Structure formats: C-alpha cells, structure tokens
Prior knowledge:
Helices cover 26% and strands 42% of the residues. β6 and β7 form a beta hairpin.
Amino acid sequence: MKPYSILILLAMCFAACAGPSSEKKAEESEAATDELSGAISTISNYATSIDVKGSSGNKIMVVHNFNRGDNTSGVTGVFSEKDTPIRLYIYPEGPQPDTSAETWFYLDTVTVKVKLMREVITTASGVIENSFYFNDDTLLQSETRKAADLASLENAEIVPYKSPYGEKDFRFSPQEVNDLAQRASIALTVTRRDLSPAANEARKQGASHWATGNEPGWSLAIIPYKKILYTGNYGEQKIEFPAAQAQKGDNDATEFKTSADGHTLEIKFENKVCTDDAGKKNPSTVTLKLDGKVLHGCGQSLF
Length: 303
C-alpha cells in the first residue's frame, strides 16, 4: 500500500473517532446549559412564591441598627409556618452617600441557606441590579443589569456579573453570603432590651404595634393579617379581634377598627411622645375605644 493511502486511512479513522466524541461533548454541553437554565428558573419561581407569602400573612419581624460593615441598616424578615426565615431584606437607614444598596436574601425552607441574593444599588448615575443564584454551597450563576432608573430596570439587558473587587468579592462565596444572612436572622430574633417581656413576646409573634395603659391595666398587640389581641383588667379580660388594615388618620395618626363577638374596638396611634407610669417615654400616644369606653395609654410601632 502506498504511503499516502495509509495517511488517508488514518485520517478517516481519526475523523470517525473524533466525530461522535465532538457530538457527544456538544450534547453534554447543551444538556448542562439546559440543566443550569432549569435550576435558575426554579430558583426565580421560588423567590416569586416567597414574595407572595411576604404580603399575604406570613409572620414578619423588623430590626433596626443592624451593623453591616460601615453602614447601619434595617432588616425585615419573612418567616415560614415553621418559624424559620425565608426572606430577608436589608436596607439602608439614616443619611446615605451617593451610592446605597438594598439586598434581598431568599432562603431554602429546609436548609435555611440562601438560594438567591438580589441587590439593587442606587447611584448618582442610575440603578444596578445584581443577582446571585446558589445551590447549597455552590454559586450557580451571577448576573447584572443597569438602567437609568427603577422603572427602566425591568427591560434592561441581563449580562454576566463582573465584580469590581475581583475574586475576593464576598458575593462569590456561598459561605460569606450565608454568614451575612445568618447574622441578619439572629439580629431579628434577639430579645430587645427596650421592650417589656410581654412586648417582646408579642413581637416574636409578629406584632407590628404594642400599647399599654392603666384604666385598669390593659395591653394591646396588633399582629398583621392574623389578629388584634386586647387584654384588660390586668389579664382578667382577653378578647381576640380579627386583623384590620391600618388607616391613616389626622396628623399622620395610624388607626384600626375591628369587631368580634359583640365587641367593637377602635385604635389610634398618634405621633406624640407619651410618658408611662414608670417614667419611660414612648413614641406614640394611644387611644382605644372599647365598646364605647375610651382608654388612654402609650405605645409604639414594633416595625
């Protein structure tokens, strides 16, 4: 056989071997891309379902003065029926520089690890949204989009995220992301020293407002979407009212109206400092009208 014939046969052999292998690699790559796309879509849908729960009755807790680096922030947490955090929102408080960031964490209901971290950064020139998708201890994908304002962000092009901090960016580390989320979760549930044991208990149930008075001793806890609890005569009388939406009253007062089992209750939280019998100053002056009887006391928003 001539030498060039041998070369042709070898080339044909290599082509036969390489062809299926290349096709297989292409199929595997396409399958991996489809799998990643499916995982990202599942996480996005999960985050949307959590957002719905956050506005339809799940327990909410709020804490202020959460230290995040050089900034002081507020934290709002949405909890599952098993009382584990499923969404955390960290937002800036007080005077802000030209650049400020808001961050949302969506946590797995079982592992309580972050599935999605989304941040919106507002600058003097526009708005940036960064999203990071996680599977347990693995970063699946990071992406970003920019727009002149929030209204334009939805239609902005999504591109891979490139960090100005390089590989040291904590957003690339599932461990560091989970550590921040855990610190925020702990801050939410820590007993507040400025509240009484009863007020702390109401707060841990998800109460947004708390008030007390002495005509004779009474207390009130407003738990959004759930109920309004009135306790009177130093604990002898307890009435559970249906939840009521907050209404805006005169001079930015917050008002509620509800009724149950023949009882009626009207509540007004006014933005007037109130000093209770123990000498403690409270941010709100509270007036109740229970079955027509007017009661006065002090209170505050727990949010």
